[in-house]
Design brief:
single chain; mainly alpha; 7 helices; globular; disordered C terminus
């Protein structure tokens, strides 16, 4: 459920920059993010009674503790990296840097949740962060990086809430998505 809104934010930034904030385009992005979020929420609600009956295991509690630490570390790394890039005169590299940090944060989560699809999402985000500044017409400032990040997050979220996501297996940690 978290990846759909974050993917929507990335795609929204892309749409904002490409269309100068066209309200119809922005509305379409918001509606798409909401629809995908509702899709995920409905699936979660369908399985919530079974999850509640099981109760959290010690492994799940440990995984969630690590999840919170990794996420806090991600936000701290983003804050520090952006400040450094601005101070050294490289603000156009903020977006690729953030994409790389977000991608890297998926790697320990893939291990902790035993959810292989997070390795793929993390690697795809890191690859995007490294390649698009070299290939995009406007380098690291090109908004295509935002589009790519959003689509990767949406694809990862969609995989997690579909039957294919069940085969990607989050073992006994239902919060992997």
């Amino acid at each position: 459920m978290v990846l759909f809104p974050f993917g929507g934010v990335w795609i929204g930034v892309y749409a904002w920059r490409m269309t100068a904030g066209n309200p119809f385009v922005m509305g379409a992005v918001v509606l798409a993010a909401l629809a995908l979020g509702v899709f995920a929420w409905r699936r979660y609600r369908r399985h919530r009674p079974a999850l509640a009956a099981i109760g959290p295991t010690s492994r799940q509690k440990r995984a969630m503790r690590i999840f919170h630490i990794v996420n806090a570390g991600q936000w701290i790394a983003i804050f520090v990296a952006i400040n450094i890039l601005v101070r050294v005169g490289l603000p156009s590299w903020e977006i690729p840097c953030v994409i790389a940090i977000v991608g890297l944060h998926f790697l320990p989560l893939a291990h902790v949740f035993n959810y292989r699809a997070h390795y793929l999402a993390g690697a795809a985000l890191v690859a995007l962060a490294m390649l698009y500044p070299l290939l995009a017409p406007h380098g690291p400032a090109d908004p295509v990086g935002c589009l790519g990040a959003g689509l990767i997050l949406w694809a990862s979220a969609f995989l997690a809430v579909t039957v294919a996501g069940d085969r990607g297996r989050a073992n006994d940690v239902p919060q992997a998505a």
